[in-house]
Design brief:
The chain is 37% helix and 22% strand. It is of the alpha+beta class. It has a five-stranded mixed beta sheet with strand order 3-2-1-4-5. It has a five-stranded antiparallel beta sheet with strand order 15-14-13-12-16. α5 (113-120) packs parallel to α7 (146-162) and α12 (254-268) runs antiparallel to α17 (435-447).
Length: 455
């Protein structure tokens, strides 16, 4: 038995909106068995633009039953049926959410007439309810009302059944079938063609713009996991509604996928990516000349219009490095802002400081050692490659870090003896770097020292 459903709501997502009208038509695949229609009194007021669209005003629903009052009757109509709707995940997510709040657990096989229409009549320019009804000469009475749209969906469903829709319906509702969970505008064939390899995937909207970038250890499994639950929140509903196509780039390792994802998020700034768009290194090592002509090193929060000598995620990392420079090159703790308390410089007691803080050491001599410290820092920062499996047996993947910074990645022929960074660079693609990528590579190299080649 099919339950063909349409609802009207106060907004586009279930977790913060209410149902204002519902219509349910029970259909046995041959004819209509039963019909139910009712206005529903929402908790929230109906926004003006929704009132204009649907014609349902706050006064109209003031005396209608609440969803909780209708829930037992609605559940009885729906719970053991195949739930049919045009863009089924929208209607189903609303009803499932509101049934949950009323103490019911709705669990139905779903059937989307958008997807079913694409199977029975492939290649049409549009699969919206209005355009399909025009295509098949189905008149919609009372458009944008639950009863009118449900009756139109019933006639569309019957038209599809008359054109051999039954095999497709059985395929949709069989146990384990996942196509019904896909966004209504995403072709199943694009998901089917995804490889079982690491990589980066891109969700595109109707105009082809990338709206989300993700990385995967297994592209097929990861992309499919996005659609295992429909969700009731606004962002989730907007996200699914805007996915029209998928593209991808295969990577030979998960680490390369992580790096490429970060690069692509920074490059494309997709609408539905959040975490890495907020990610910025917290602290930087800066140098400036004070009024007395002394070069001063300072750890400070990352500044938008100043380029740091080096960046750190944690303040303690920066302090450790500056202390190391102070000890190695006899720099002044006060001039490096490591001693902020008043009083004599503690470095003069252990001969670390040679008197620059009270101008006993000339600026030129002190600045020379600061320069030597920065040269040492540049040399001290590690250069190494991470070599791992390639796409093919006759190649290897390679990620290059140069003087503590991510240079790029690519593929080298298996068995090639790399003796210098410059030689290695001829095989690699250069990418922008950031602290997130740098941290990924450092952590991976530390966990897998056998894959690290130092220069």
């Amino acid at each position: 038995m099919y339950a063909i459903v349409d609802i009207e709501t106060t907004g586009g997502y279930a977790s913060n909106n209410d149902i204002t009208e519902i219509a349910i038509v029970l259909h046995d695949g041959q004819s209509v068995i039963k019909r139910f229609e009712s206005l529903i009194r929402p908790v929230r007021t109906i926004p003006y633009y929704i009132q204009v669209l649907t014609g349902i005003s706050n006064d109209m629903v003031a005396g209608a039953p609440s969803f909780d009052e209708l829930a037992p009757q609605l559940y009885e109509l729906l719970h053991d049926k195949i739930f049919v709707a045009h863009n089924v995940n929208f209607d189903y997510s609303f009803l499932k959410h509101h049934f949950n709040t009323a103490g019911y657990e709705l669990s139905c096989n779903k059937l989307c007439t958008v997807r079913l229409s694409k199977k029975v009549f492939p290649g049409l320019p549009s699969y919206s309810l209005g355009n399909l009804c025009r295509q098949f000469d189905i008149t919609i009475f009372n458009r944008h009302r639950a009863g009118g749209d449900t009756d139109a969906t019933v006639r569309l469903f019957e038209h599809l059944l008359q054109h051999n829709a039954e095999p497709h319906i059985q395929q949709f509702i069989k146990r384990g079938a996942k196509e019904q969970a896909l966004p209504p505008n995403l072709p199943k064939e694009q998901v089917d063609q995804l490889p079982y390899t690491p990589g980066v995937y891109y969700f595109h909207n109707q105009t082809g713009k990338v709206i989300y970038v993700g990385k995967a250890k297994n592209l097929k499994y990861r992309v499919s996991s996005h659609f295992t639950h429909n969700g009731a929140g606004k962002q989730r509903q907007d996200f699914l509604r805007n996915i029209y196509s998928i593209t991808y780039k295969s990577c030979s390792t998960e680490l390369m996928a992580f790096i490429l994802e970060s690069v692509e998020i920074k490059r494309l700034w997709p609408q539905f990516n959040n975490s890495q768009k907020r990610f910025t290194p917290s602290f930087g090592l800066y140098m400036f000349e004070d009024g007395g002509g002394y070069l001063r090193l300072a750890i400070d929060k990352k500044k938008k219009h100043m380029q740091p000598l080096y960046t750190f995620n944690l303040l303690t990392e920066g302090h450790q490095l500056v202390r190391q420079l102070i000890q190695r090159f006899s720099l002044c703790s006060k001039l490096c802002f490591m001693q902020t308390a008043p009083g004599p410089c503690t470095g003069t007691e252990d001969s670390t400081c040679l008197g620059a803080c009270d101008h006993r050491e000339p600026a030129a001599a002190y600045n020379k050692r600061v320069g030597e410290a920065l040269e040492w820092l540049e040399e001290w920062l590690p250069s190494f490659a991470v070599v791992d499996a390639g796409h093919e047996r006759d190649e290897q993947s390679c990620i290059l870090m140069e003087k503590g910074k991510f240079y790029g990645m690519g593929y080298i022929p298996a068995g090639v003896g790399i003796t210098s960074r410059e030689e290695l660079k001829t095989y690699l693609t250069r990418y922008p770097e950031n602290d997130y990528i740098r941290g990924l590579v450092y952590q991976y190299a530390e966990r897998n020292p056998h894959k690290k080649i130092s220069f």
